[in-house]
UniProtKB/TrEMBL annotation:
Entry GO MF terms: oxidoreductase activity
Name assigned to this protein: Redoxin family protein
Alphabetical GO biological process terms: cytochrome complex assembly
Originating species: Corynebacterium pseudogenitalium ATCC 33035
A GO CC term attached to the entry: cell envelope
Amino acid sequence: MKNYVLGTVIAAILIAVIAVAGVSQLRGGDGSEEASPSEAPSQEVPQRPDCPAGTVAGVELECLGGAATGKPADEGIAVVNVWAWWCEPCRAELPYLQDVAEAHPDWQVVGVHADKNAGNGAAFLNDLGVELPSFQDSDNKFAGELGLPGVVPVTVVLKDGEVRKQFAQPFSSAAEIEKAVEEAIAA
């Protein structure tokens, strides 16, 4: 019995030491706070392309680093990609979306940055060389109102503002995106 109690006490002490070490690592090891991706300090938002005017699937969002001008996203075919600056699958997928936008000027291909740090989002797109207009969604209003899963990337296909299909997966080519969009608007 004494060995069992002693073993339990030692295990509890080890867990406490590991927890304290983990907190110290999160604070940068020197006691300073290190922010998580969604809590990273905000910065000035770099200039980005202008966004379509109006709402996206009925959801009002601010343009990420640009102004809201031109044909509304709720008219015709829209391909809306929900992404975040810290998302590695998004990093791979966004250039394919740029290719789709260039190949289909009749489609509105836009992004929705689902993170509080707009500055990092705009810088991320600029670093990738992706010129897609993107909206800023600091509080995940777009995903919440459309009932999207809480993962990124998610691509939503709209026809005249109505959701036709959503894809909670990263695409691995522009051709794969085009096929998915064409099937969604034909359905």
